[in-house]
Amino acid sequence: MTQFDPKALRQAFSVFPTGVTIVTARADDGTPVGFTANSFTSVSLDPPLLLVCPGRYLSSFPVFETCSRFAVNVLADGQEALSDTFARFGGDRFAQAAWTDDPDLPPVFHGVAAHFLCTTHQIIPAGDHVVLMGEVEAFERSERLGLGFAEQNYFSLGSVNAAERERHYG
């Protein structure tokens, strides 16, 4: 197997711009868990499938490795602090955010660009992560633009679009 410097490989991966999501679920006792992820991909429209890739290093990994339902919250422009909270904060992350607390559903955050409620379709071991594939059972899209991430920095699609319009139409 080829050996790479993990830091250099991560930096190379980071040049690919992605959206930013927070994936949520509930532990068996109902406790909400979540993590920030940019590993989110649509897989199929029929059936409606998507995937995310939780890392084995997550404190909540055991929940995601066995969950029957989860949600993907696509963060909107301006939700950088929420992303950072779920990427770094070690305390009660959910106390730092506005979210819908329905004990029968995975948490959904207020103000996101879109969210997808999923039942677990398949969990595939993949190195230091798993591929968590979900069948979309419900979704909602807002009018907000998604939050972007590349080269370890957030970017705004609204700002990019405005800059392009200015460049073309002065």
**What is the first-to-last residue Cα distance?**
52 Å
Number of domains: 1
Q: Characterize the overall form.
A: globular
Q: Helical segment tally?
A: 4
Strand order of the largest sheet: 3-2-6-9-10-5-4
Low-confidence stretches: none
H and E order? HEEEEEHEHEEEEEEH
Class by alpha and beta content: alpha+beta
Here the CATH topology equals Pnp Oxidase, Chain A
* Broad CATH class: Mainly Beta
Largest sheet: 7 strands, antiparallel
Summed over residues and divided by their number, the pLDDT gives a mean of 92
Our estimate of the beta-strand percent is 35-45%
Architecture (CATH level 2) name: Roll
Work out the helicity level: 10-25%
What does the oligomeric state look like here?
single chain
Per DSSP E runs of 2 or more residues, the count of β-strands stands at: 12
Radius of gyration: 17 Å
CATH superfamily: Electron Transport, Fmn-binding Protein, Chain A
Please sum up the structure shown:
The chain has 170 residues and is α+β, with helices and mostly antiparallel strands. The chain has helices at 6-13, 61-66, 80-88, 157-169, and strands at residues 18-19, 21-26, 32-37, 40-45, 48-52, 69-74, 99-100, 108-109, 114-126, 129-141, 147-150, 153-156. The chain has one domain (6-169): Pnp Oxidase, Chain A (Roll), CATH 2.30.110.
